[in-house]
Amino acid sequence: MDIKLISAIIIISLALVFYTIGVFSERKAGVLKLKHLIYFGLGLLFDTTGTTIMSSIANATATTTPQLHLVTGIAAIVLMAFHFVWAGYVLFMGRSKSKVNFHKFSLMVWIFWLVPYLAGLVIGMSN
Asked: InterPro entries from the xrefs (predicted)?
């Protein structure tokens, strides 16, 4: 297995770890905190980095990525970026009620993010 591919798999898996910690620790805490924002940012950073590496591998090998995986992957990164920015806004400018209810949005984004993550696993294992 190529070192680039191994790196991408590890990096995207780290995105899963950080994002999951952020979402579920926020849920457990019952209120959005700075540490959750940091975890969301790390998840976004690692996902974007891993996806960029995977894209460069696909382009270099002329591998075709299933359209659904491509669209959900891009949508997930955009949604994660929006989630991160919105979390920052809620944390620093939002009302107390918004900080308490933010976990509902976080969980929804996390579930959506799992779609391209799991699809990538299935695609990778079937190749």
From this structure: HsmA-like
